[in-house]
Amino acid sequence: MRIGVRRHQTVSAVALGAILVLAACTTSTRTESPGANYRTLEPEPAAFELCFNHGCIDRAVIRLEEQQWAQVRARFMPSPASAAEERLRIAEAVALLEAMTGEQAGTSADIGGTFAGFLHDKQLDCIDESINTSTYLILLRQAGLLRWHVLANPASRGYFLLGWPHATAVVVETETAKAYAVDSWFHDNGHPPAVVPLYDWYRGWSPDDV
Predict the structure, then answer these.
(1) Residue 10 DSSP SS3
(2) H/E element holding 5?
(3) DSSP conformation class of 19
(4) Is 53 helix (H, G, I), strand (E, B) or coil?
(5) Domains contained in the chain, number
(6) Bond from prior residue into 45 cis (ω within 30 degrees of 0)
(7) Is residue 209 assigned to a domain?
(8) Which one of 26, 134, 161, 183 is least enclosed by Cβ atoms within 10 Å?
(9) Residue 29 sits in which domain range?
(10) Could you read off the pLDDT of 4-28 as tens digits, one per residue?
(11) How far apart are CA 148 and CA 11, in angstroms?
């Protein structure tokens, strides 16, 4: 299957959203990003966009087969009995979607973090990861698979002097209104993302803390 890759020289809605997150990620801030307009293609399993090559410079249109999407839905069967269980299922589904999209877009070799794979083609930084993971969460929400959480805008943290700038996708538990980072950036492609309280994430959480 031929995958269309587009490199944007002008500020489109997706690129603008990435820039907004990036601006928050590289200046200061412990703030929610106004990233509601980060996509131009309304995502559905049959056609959605994947960002890569740092800051969503490049995008590929991903097309999942019905059988592939059925595998994603199966991660939520039977329906999670608690919010904590649903977060585990979300992590599993995001990992599966990363593996599926990686095969199509050529991002399967993406290395966790930014600097280890910085000079490699088709790598993802925190901007790419936060946008892609948010897209996956939109797909799950539209399919009615999220019962215990709602999707929030991506969040960013960090000052250059007080911690490296960083961004993440976010979900909010409906019963408690507690927000959780869904952070795919720390690990290689296809590995379940870290799902941790956003408050802890803002304070500099990383897998090294576990």
Answers:
(1) coil
(2) strand 5-7
(3) H
(4) coil
(5) 1
(6) no
(7) no
(8) 161
(9) 5-204
(10) 444 333 233 343 344 444 433 433 3
(11) 35
